[in-house]
Design goal:
- The chain is α+β, with helices and mostly antiparallel strands.
- It folds into 5 domains: 35-207, no CATH class; 275-322, no CATH class; 336-386, no CATH class; 398-443, no CATH class; 482-724, DD-peptidase/beta-lactamase superfamily (Beta-lactamase, 3-Layer(aba) Sandwich), CATH 3.40.710.
- 28% of the residues lie in helices and 20% in strands.
- Strands 12-9-10-11-13 form a 5-stranded mixed sheet, with no helix packed on it. Strands 17-14-15-16-18 form a 5-stranded mixed sheet, with no helix packed on it. It has a 5-stranded antiparallel sheet with strand order 24-23-33-32-31, with helices on both faces.
- α3 (75-86) packs parallel to α7, α4 (90-101) packs across α9 (193-207) and α17 (509-519) crosses α21 (579-593).
- The longest helix has 17 residues, at 139-155.
């Protein structure tokens, strides 16, 4: 938080009109959160706050200190009491604690993090030693101050320095018109885009609804099952009822605290295909539709057992849609699957005298797990009318294209790509529930927006990647324009300098090229043909001529091990995208990763407009290292390969890692992965994953803008040596 403390006086209370905001997929600077969300102090109890801290493994879960009145309380109690006292959501306080000091995910915060927990009373030019600032030092005062100032803003919207709803302002030279008072107040509290984007990212990751329509979820602490539908959770009355509609094995187990993001919808009280006898009619329950039988005689003629009929009243069936009447001539009112053996085993659903083609054979098991499958010949198809359109997968279905790594979830009839393994795992999905489909089937399903859960940085396994504004000390006293040292894999920054200053990053760009290519199904077992018109590049190229063929793995390793530029362009164009679209895809991924200060304009790193910051490179490098292929390549000292088809005298290539420190075995650390780069604009840059030989702890070291090219590895080596020796640490808690 970067704001000036103001004298609080009570003016008036504005009752704001209600509005709602669906969970956004990208940051909208004009709308961060709604006023209802910021002021919802009744949605959670103190116990809910405690359970949230427990679920994150936060240091605060066991923390006690004085509140604003001097009474010793738990952190959860302090947060909850401040929220209720000021009529502000405890969720706002939790997000602010994370944004400012990483206090929700940090398991060993410093005294400074706790003392200035919400950044209250701290401004860009404020000195912490100033007595006017010192009086707000302490966790309890900080939490109360953050909640209190938000209430004060609501009560004093006429003050000139309080930013206004629907009034244009400039934030970091960008025009913004806050669409809610909450958004205006967040900019008053933190007058920077990046800080508020971090706030939104954390809020969305923790409290937004992101499970697709139709997802079956299970509470972590009970045996209760729910279906997510239209932004609400619908509880199954029993597991038996669940089984009648879906396979329990497809259920995703989620924390109880995450379930609270979904309001309760209408419960699912009856098994699918139940026979329900109401006051005026008897019905077949077909999912959420009641289909009336023409008469009691029709019920009998169709063979339904009277003992299976459930008596219901008007209240039991209120809200159900009423479907077509079932009469004696209705064939298969519940449905039956026809497998046509002499027509390539194609599948159809026969229901109400109508045949519906299934878009893919996997639809039968996924959509209709409880329907009988009958084998027929194609002559039987002539007995019924044929529907115009095939049946696609139901919402919530997980599908994977055959011979591809691309995984999708069906949501409101569209296929939404699950962006990466982190997202798949964070959402609780299981590969055993994937339905494999043909490419033609996938092409017939419209595309929806991709799903990323990397907004929730903690869920991705990296607790400290860019979601905090906690100050970083230059412990190493490095003679570099910008550097950073972080624990791995947590991402906790333990030393750094100018870590948010934008700089050209040269060939560190190739980390993103490799990751994007492999995410786009770049097949390492296949080959690519070099074309000088598409792939030629200046600076450190392989000696290739048009028409030569190489294995994709060798091309990728060339780009990563020895930073070969024309190899990087071959990788980028090897996934079927134009280089322009490939770059656009990288930048989209960077947005989702929260690398807000990074922009990529070419695939080699030669363009000076490829920019990033040390903090963003930490995010990128940490993400990229999760790919085993890339990590393996970045750890190679030498790599040799032969061209598949050679058209000049150079058929075998031996390349060396461009990091000279890889050749030195006397260091007190091992380099597990490394990527270098250099251009005149970027100067020398380096990203390394190292392991201390002393205690086996791992760290990431990033250096940017090293102007001494001849001795470009001296400072990185000194920093890595200090780190491996345990000399780079953050001061402990008082």
């Amino acid at each position: 938080m970067k704001h000036f403390l103001i004298t609080i006086t009570i003016f008036c209370l504005f009752f704001l009109p209600s509005s709602s905001a669906l969970a956004a997929t990208e940051f909208n600077p004009h709308f961060i959160i709604s006023d209802e969300e910021l002021q919802d102090c009744n949605g959670w109890t103190a116990r809910d706050v405690q359970e949230f801290l427990d679920s994150k493994g936060s240091y605060l879960r066991n923390y006690q200190c004085e509140d604003v009145s001097g009474t010793i309380k738990t952190a959860a109690e302090i947060i909850y009491d401040a929220a209720v006292r000021n009529q502000i959501s405890p969720k706002f306080l939790l997000v602010t604690l994370q944004k400012e000091q990483s206090l929700i995910t940090d398991d060993s915060p410093t005294a400074r993090q706790l003392d200035w927990a919400t950044g209250f009373a701290v401004c860009d030019g404020c000195a912490l030693a100033d007595p006017k600032v010192q009086k707000y030092k302490g966790f309890g005062k900080q939490v109360d101050g953050a909640a209190g100032i938000m209430r004060w803003y609501y009560d004093n919207t006429d003050k000139s320095f309080v930013k206004k709803k629907d009034s244009p302002i400039y934030i970091d030279a960008q025009p913004v018109t806050p669409q809610t008072w909450a958004t205006a107040f967040l900019y008053t509290y933190t007058p920077h885009l990046h800080g508020n984007q971090n706030f939104w990212r954390i809020w969305s990751g923790w409290f937004a609804q992101f499970y697709p329509n139709g997802t079956i979820v299970r509470a972590a602490s009970s045996s209760d099952y729910y279906m997510i539908q239209d932004g609400k959770k619908r509880k199954f009355a029993s597991k038996t009822i669940l089984v009648s509609r879906a396979d329990p094995q497809t259920a995703v187990t989620i924390p109880d605290i995450d379930l609270q993001n979904y309001p309760d919808g209408t419960g699912i009280a009856f098994a699918n295909y139940s026979i329900l006898r109401g006051p005026n009619a008897t019905y077949l329950l077909d999912y959420d539709t009641l289909r009336p039988f023409a008469s009691s005689e029709v019920v009998r003629q169709l063979g339904y057992n009277p003992q299976e009929i459930v008596e219901v009243n008007y209240a039991d069936i209120a809200g159900y849609a009423v479907g077509p009447v079932i009469n004696a001539s209705t064939t298969a009112p519940q449905g039956v699957i026809y497998k046509i053996s002499d027509l390539n085993n194609t599948y159809y659903l026969l229901k109400d005298n109508l045949l519906y083609p299934l878009a893919d054979k996997a639809v039968a098991k996924t959509n209709f797990p409880n329907l009988a499958i009958e084998t027929h010949g194609k002559k039987d198809l002539a007995l019924f009318s044929m529907a115009d359109r095939p049946i696609q997968f139901t919402d919530g279905s997980l599908v994977q294209i055959k011979d591809s790594s691309k995984i999708f979830v069906i949501d409101r009839g569209k296929k939404r790509r699950i962006a990466d393994a982190d997202t798949f795992n964070a959402m609780g999905y299981q590969k055993s529930n994937l339905a494999t489909i043909e490419l033609t089937t996938a092409m017939s399903i419209p595309d929806g927006e991709p799903i990323y859960v990397n907004n929730s940085l903690a869920s991705a396994g990296n607790k400290f990647l860019g979601d905090s504004e906690a100050p970083v000390d230059d412990v190493c006293k490095a003679k570099l324009p910008s550097y950073l040292v972080a624990e791995y894999p947590s991402g906790k920054i333990i030393s750094g300098k100018n870590i948010d200053t934008k700089r050209s990053i040269a060939s560190l760009t190739k980390l993103l090229v490799a990751y994007e290519a492999l995410s786009q199904d770049y097949n390492l077992t296949k080959t690519s043909v070099y074309n000088s018109k598409l792939h030629a590049s200046s600076g450190n190229p392989l000696s290739l001529v048009t028409g030569e063929k190489l294995k994709n793995k060798d091309i990728l390793y060339s780009a990563l091990v020895s930073s070969v530029n024309n190899a990087a362009r071959m990788v980028a164009t090897g996934v079927g995208l134009s280089e322009k679209n490939f770059i656009a895809s990288i930048n989209t991924r960077l947005d989702e990763w929260g690398a807000d200060n990074t922009t990529i304009t070419d695939t080699t790193g030669l363009d000076a407009k490829n920019i990033s910051t040390a903090r963003d490179v930490l995010k990128i490098f940490t993400k990229v290292l999760k790919n085993a292929t890339i990590k393996d390549a970045l750890g190679d000292v030498n790599y040799t390969f032969k061209e598949v088809v050679s058209k000049n005298k150079v058929a075998t290539h031996t390349i060396k890692n461009t990091n000279q420190l890889m050749m030195n075995s006397t260091k007190p650390y091992r380099i597990l992965a490394s990527k270098t780069g250099y251009t005149d604009e970027a100067d020398a840059v380096l990203a390394m994953l190292i392991e201390s030989k002393k205690d086996k702890k791992q760290y990431i070291v990033i250096t940017l803008g090293n102007t001494n090219y001849a001795k470009r590895f001296d400072e990185p080596n000194r920093i890595a040596t200090m780190t491996a020796a345990g000399q780079v640490t953050i001061a402990g808690i008082k």
